[in-house]
């Protein structure tokens, strides 16, 4: 069982039928979370992302996971490329982006990924790709969906801690 010790998220606590809906909720939940932060660009400590940077990261995770899902449906056991999360935060200048634009893009990405997961049956959810983080490990598409839900939940917690 995959369990995040920091936030308590249990992967097997998310049924396959729940993945799409949980992803679809992120748009509103991130908008609410950013509304609760006085300065979305402020980093609370060195090496800790701002609320806006976490939101940008989740937007990009949703996009990358959609690409990985599509690849795993087209190819047998593909190797997923790392997303370069830390480099992307710098090259895409996360902390200088417009929060309203980021939230709209996060919502669109969540809807696209949620719709893709809603269309999958058991055979597709069992398809495997080589997931690159923290080390290369074969993972099912169901795990990919659950992991994406975890990313969204975990980073909401990071924002609320600010």
Uncertain segments of ≥5 residues (pLDDT<50)?
A: none
> What is the helix tally?
7
Helices and strands, in N-to-C order?
HHHHHHEEH
Beta-strand content bin:
under 5%
Largest sheet: 2 strands, antiparallel
The general outline is globular
- Structural class by sheet pairing and helices: mainly alpha
Gyration radius, in Å: 15 Å
Number of strands: 2
Mean pLDDT: 97
Strand order of the largest sheet: 1-2
Task: Please bin the fraction of helical residues.
Answer: 55-70%
Terminal CA distance reads 29 Å
List the main descriptive attributes of the protein structure presented here.
single chain, 162 residues, mainly alpha, two-stranded antiparallel sheet, 7 helices, 56% helix, globular
The gist of it:
The protein is mainly alpha-helical and 162 residues long. The protein has helices spanning 19-24, 26-35, 51-74, 85-91, 99-118, 122-125, 141-160; strands at 128-131, 137-140.
Explain what you see.
With 162 residues, the chain is mainly alpha-helical. The relative contact order is 0.23. Helix 2 packs parallel to helix 7 (141-160). Helix content is 56%, strand content 5%. Strand 1 (128-131) and strand 2 form a beta hairpin. It has a two-stranded antiparallel sheet with strand order 1-2.
């Amino acid at each position: 069982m995959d369990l995040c010790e920091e936030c308590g998220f249990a992967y097997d606590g998310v049924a396959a039928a729940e993945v799409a809906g949980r992803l679809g909720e992120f748009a509103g939940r991130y908008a609410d979370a950013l509304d609760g932060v006085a300065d979305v660009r402020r980093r609370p400590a060195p090496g800790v992302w701002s609320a806006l940077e976490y939101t940008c990261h989740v937007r990009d995770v949703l996009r990358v996971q959609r690409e990985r899902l599509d690849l795993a449906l087209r190819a047998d056991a593909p190797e997923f490329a790392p997303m370069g999360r830390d480099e992307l935060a710098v090259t895409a200048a996360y902390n200088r982006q417009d929060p309203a634009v980021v939230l709209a893009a996060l919502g669109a990405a969540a809807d696209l990924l949620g719709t893709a997961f809603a269309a999958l049956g058991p055979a597709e959810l069992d398809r495997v790709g080589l997931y690159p983080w923290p080390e290369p490990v074969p993972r099912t598409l169901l795990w990919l969906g659950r992991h994406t839900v975890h990313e969204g939940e975990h980073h909401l917690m990071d924002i609320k801690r600010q």
